C-alpha cells in the first residue's frame, strides 16, 4: 500500500500542471464567479430601479381628469342628458346628438351651450369622454394637436395598430 501511495507523493506539484487539472481549475473559478456575481449585481440593480422610479415619479403625476371637473380646452364638449325634455331643448339650441343609450343621450355642444346647461340631476358634463388614457399620459382628442395626428388609412399588407375612441361608453352590441 505504501508503494502505491509513494509515487503520488513524489509527483507533488506536477499533478497541478497537467491540462485536465487546469481545465478543472477554470471550471471551479467560473463556478465561483457565477455564484458570487448575483450577490454583487443585485444591490446595483435595486439601486438603479429605485433611481428610475424616482426619475419617473413626475411622469406618473400626469393629471388624469376626473369625470366631474375636467373640461376640454377647445370649443367641443360632451353633455349627458337623462331628461327627454331637456334633450329636445338642447337639440333646438344646436347640440348635436352623438349617442343614444335609451336611458340617456350624449350630445356635443359648444362652450356657451355647455355653460348654459348647468349641472343638475338630469345633465352631466362628460368631457372626460374626450380623453384617451395612455401609459405616456392623457390625450384629449379635441385638442388641435390630437386632431392633426389623424390621418386616412391607406392600403397596407402587414399588421398595424389603430387607436379608436368611442363617443361614450361602449354598448354591448
Structural class: alpha+beta
Q: Could you tell me the strand content as a percent range?
A: 15-25%
What is the percent of helical residues? 40-55%
Mean pLDDT: 76
Main beta sheet = 4 strands, antiparallel
What order do the strands of the largest sheet run in, or round the barrel if closed? 2-3-1-4
- Number of continuous helical runs: 5
Span from first to last CA? 92 Å
Shape: elongated
Instruction: Count the E strands.
Output: 6
> Which stretches of 5+ consecutive residues score pLDDT under 50?
57-62
Query: What are the secondary-structure elements, in order, as H or E?
Result: HHEHEEHEEEH
What Rg is obtained from the alpha carbons, in whole angstroms? 35 Å
Quaternary form: single chain
List the helices and strands and how they pair.
Elements: H1 2-11, H2 19-60, E1 77-81, H3 84-92, E2 96-100, E3 105-109, H4 111-117, E4 123-125, E5 131-134, E6 137-140, H5 144-148
Antiparallel strand pairs: 1-3, 1-4, 2-3, 5-6
